[in-house]
Amino acid sequence: MTDLYDRTYDELAAWFTERGLPAYRAGQVFRWLARGVSDYAEMTDLPKDLRAALAAEFRVDGLFVERKLVSADDDTVKYVFRLHDGNVIESVLMKYRHGYSVCISSQAGCRMGCTFCASTLAGFGRDLSAGEMLGQVARIGADCGARISNVVVMGIGEPLDNYDELVRFLRLLNDARGLGVGLRHVSVSTCGVVPRMLDFTDEGLPVTLSVSLHAPNDAIRRQLMPVARSFPIEDLLEACRRHVERTGRRISFEYSMFQGVNDRPEHARELARRLRGLQCHVNLIPANEFAGGTYRRSRSEAVRAFQGILEAEGINATVRRELGTDIEAACGQLRRRLEETETQ
Hints:
alpha/beta; DNA polymerase, domain 1; TIM Barrel; 2 domains; ten-stranded mixed β-sheet; two-stranded parallel ribbon
């Protein structure tokens, strides 16, 4: 049985037409999906026999809220979703002055093996379908009772490792007959899978590409990220330059800071030299610490000094505002703890 959330508007219209039913029913169903429906009984403007026919072919309850944690420090909410096959993913709702933003997962687990990441230690389950990505946005919007204006594909998983479903999800998300989230309000992260970055640029989707850099050179990057062994930093930066030239969208570089590893003044100066002339922004992240992790987060004074050097060299840099620290809002932490508990 497939997920109803995976269907595009045109695919739904064809399904109704093939059964001699009016195509306008597709619009009704598509709108229900945008409202985060999880039970066919909620589709009150559809006849019961039609709901039964849909239920016989498509599931609509593929995401079950296993846990929901609300931060006491801010308005951040973390959702742990159980999928229909038992896999677990995480999503985070964040409230900003400009509206609500959702950070979603693209995979149940991750294959990239980054040595500082809780998602890696929890292991890899499978890729998510486009509908499972869409469902996270819709279900959270329904739960908080507000329109989601921004989406960040930066939760568990490497989005470009699930390329076809990611692109399908973005087109579903953008469809004005459904959620209608503008792609300029969407960010997609990658740890630097260069061939897929080149493909993604050619899609012509005006999303922000957020690149997990985390190091100023190959030696440190290979220590932190196995993907760097396949794709050297200069190849990665060339793909970034191409993306900026083709799309006109600046690159956002994520730079997690680890004490004594990548946070020294000489690292900042080397990074500035590499990025000079590239339309970009560097997001400095005091690293998340978790049980089993081997790295310690940089001291606040080292982070600020690093930022100061970048800015003095003409590189736009900010320090990420931390949200939901009391509920372990960083990706992978709760999934890992939950799955460890279940295997004990």
